[in-house]
Amino acid sequence: MFETLKALNPDPILGLMAAYRHDGNPRKVDLGVGVYKDEAGHTPIMASVLRADAVHRATETSKTYVGPTGDAEFNREIQALIFGIAHPALTADRVRTVQAPGGCGALRVAAELINRARPGAAMWVSDPTWANHVPLLGDAGLEIKIYPYYDAARQGLKVDAMLSALDQIKAGDLVLLHGCCHNPCGVDLNEAQWDAVAALAAKRGFTPFVDLAYLGLGLGLEQDVYGVRKLAASVPELIVASSCSKNFGLYRERVGALSIVSPTVAEAEVVHGQVQNVARGIYSMPPNYGAALVGRILGDPALRQEWDRELTEMRDRINALRADLAKKFSALLGNSRFDFIPQQRGMFSFLGLNKNQVQRLKTEYGIYMVDSSRINVAGINKKNIDYFCEAVCAIL
Ligand code: LMR
Fold it and tell me: Are strands 143-148 and 122-127 parallel, antiparallel or unpaired?
């Protein structure tokens, strides 16, 4: 049967992990897949997670099924973290959150739900967007359309082009927005730009869909949800797919959530039932372990404080590396070519290299990044920063 299928190339992002592992170059540098790394180049288990794990193991008494909505404490805490407990959408009981297997699971469940409600609905995504958005949303049956976003010449936002494109979108279409730390370009909307997008969503009647995979890694926990909260206050309907992979370091445990704001409590209830039914038909119910830890951390003041401190350390380290990179490049090149790096947020930035240059960095220097020249800034450290910057300057 499967002889009809063709061999595929490795995934453009995940494939880099295997290629890096097999590279024997002792100076190799991994700036590929988006995982946080500390100064030693290690992706650690957070101390707050280890502490929550100890409590969890000591107190968990059963491994029986939880159900398609997942861990109730996790859902409550994530909802409060994203929207803030006093948000009018929450106090009006118009938000329903279900746990999902990672942010990817949340994106896919949402896409299946949208396709049930409006088969083949148009989903507008930024140019560029995370490569996996296209299969996650498109394979559910949605039609992927593109709005302008990144200005490669200025390494910033094509704000006018973006806003005028959004001003043409028709009611019933959906617009995918990166809540913070845009993947892959690192260019985020400022508050005024979020306000403008929210006003357009209200005016045009399109449904915003926010992917919030990097909450807390941009400017801070509160600042990073400005856009989500603004949208939730401006439009009757909003979809949010969130992830705990990066901000809790729980990548392989697959911890995510889907939150949907509905116009009325009655509609929220219908949506909640439909979401559970979609989940049941794909994976039945999400894994519990990672979500149980997140629920415990967010629900316990001491653990939460520790987690917040660790997250702040991660964010500060990334932002400091951004500044260091710009300084090193400027000293080496004698120009401001890479001065944009500290203006961007989260793990990623484009270096603005072509495929051939990216390939040379890989084969000649053992430096791995996505073909688009997206780097994971967190992969830089004191030991490799000079080697990396010098290599980039050498191939320019
Ligand atoms: C990335 O963009 O590198 C991460 O989100 C990991 C992934 O699954 O692609």
Answer: parallel
